[in-house]
Amino acid sequence: MQAAHAAVRGGVSVLEIVMSTPGALEVVIGDLRRSYPSLTFGVGTVLNPEDARKAIRAGAQFLMSPGTVMEILHARKESEVLYIPGVLTPTEVISASNAGAEVVKVYPVSVMGGEVYMLALKKPFPFLPMVASQGISIGGEGFWVRGGKMGLAFGKLFSRLFAKKEMRILMVGLDAAGKTTILYKLKLGEIVTTIPTIGFNVETVEYKNISFTVWDVGGQDKIRPLWRHYFQNTQGLIFVVDSNDRDRVVEARDELHRMLNEDELRDAVLLVFANKQDLPNAMNAAEITDKLGLHSLRQRHWYIQSTCATTGEGLYEGLDWLSSNIASKGGKMGLAFGKLFSRLFAKKEMRILMVGLDAAGKTTILYKLKLGEIVTTIPTIGFNVETVEYKNISFTVWDVGGQDKIRPLWRHYFQNTQGLIFVVDSNDRDRVVEARDELHRMLNEDELRDAVLLVFANKQDLPNAMNAAEITDKLGLHSLRQRHWYIQSTCATTGEGLYEGLDWLSSNIASKA
């Protein structure tokens, strides 16, 4: 027990309790689960199905064996508990993999040569995650981290899967409802001076074992039609109401129900913050429930929470409800483990920002990649966002409008961008200098300092188009000595060159990771 407590104090978030530990199932796991409910506990040295049943009844979330117990491996297909069998030779790896193992433990790795053996064993099985066990000492851990081995990284992996959940939250409401004050009260724990939000604020809020990505979108009437651009992948919707604003509560109701009728929000849970409860004439939660027509939402998980953004009262109670209801809709981890491993080890996700002057062909490129066909486009006001699947990469591509009045808003999309696609109309000689200036202005932004740059020299099918070498010169690309960049000739309407560009983008982002 002392060793377990010391490990937790040292930051360990996943613990394996071996069966040979005295009282492992009856005492140790029970005590640790009560003391550290957010941690992940598994049982090791599981030698037979009876051991496995006892461990699962005690609350084990994963099982490990020094060898492969086929009865457990076959039985775990009906269980929510991950089983990690032990292997030592290529023959044992093949047997375990063919029987359905999603990850294996190489044990004892040191007797076979340690790092050298692990490299050789891993090579024929790149699809199968492997845990290196026994003989990993202090001072030798660098190899396992640099080499991509799972042994030392497994704790972090389990932490992401079991302890840390990520949730995408959209927070909207009429202007002056208190959304931005709420966001920064949650993020910073203090009140900040706010101005009406034009566009959005986005912050990651850490609470308990949840990482909330909260998008706070402006609520002025002219901005509300843009709310729908933020709906995709939203798991939880926070609708903030000014409880003191009786004159506009009907307007708030109409906006709320209009949103909830959108197909992209059909699975999102709804949390209503009845804000500004500190004001003397504020409507209470019951009155707001009635005025917003919440009881009519029979197919929706919803909850209303009285809040005061300035003091923080009620905010975390709302997050508690939100996290538990999103988690309950998401299903249990065990059943989804195969898919999670597939995403973590086979599928890479990359965030790409695509910009350029208006009429360069950005939206045509996006939907050619997404749908494989040409779509009729109009000038983009705001943005389009799509997920493009290619090979083992999932690209989230943000196509942002390029008109001169919109360009100052580009910076709002820079955060977490791994790859920048800059699209140039190769036939537009009159504005290539303007394109160069916009490109270099962006690249000087701190948030894009690590992003790789792909230039699409588009519209190469036109007879007077500049070739890639000419555009390279006119954009001053050779001056970018500290930047990974590449230029690709493309034709958006035929798709020529697009996937060659994605190949370069994916390999260069992966090499920087």
Quick summary:
With 513 residues, this protein is α/β, with parallel strands linked by helices. Helix content is 34%, strand content 22%.
List keywords for this structure.
single chain; 513 residues; alpha/beta; TIM Barrel; Rossmann fold; six-stranded mixed β-sheet; 17 helices; 34% helix
Topology (SSEs and partners):
Layout: H1 2-9, E1 14-18, H2 24-35, E2 40-44, H3 49-57, E3 62-64, H4 70-75, E4 82-84, E5 86-87, H5 90-98, E6 104-106, H6 115-122, E7 130-132, H7 141-146, H8 150-163, E8 165-173, H9 179-188, E9 200-207, E10 210-217, E11 236-242, H10 249-260, E12 269-275, H11 285-291, E13 302-306, H12 315-330, H13 337-346, E14 348-355, H14 362-371, E15 383-390, E16 393-400, E17 419-425, H15 432-443, E18 452-458, H16 468-475, E19 485-489, H17 498-512
Parallel strand pairs: 1-2, 2-3, 3-4, 5-6, 6-7, 8-10, 8-11, 11-12, 12-13, 14-16, 14-17, 17-18, 18-19
Antiparallel strand pairs: 9-10, 15-16
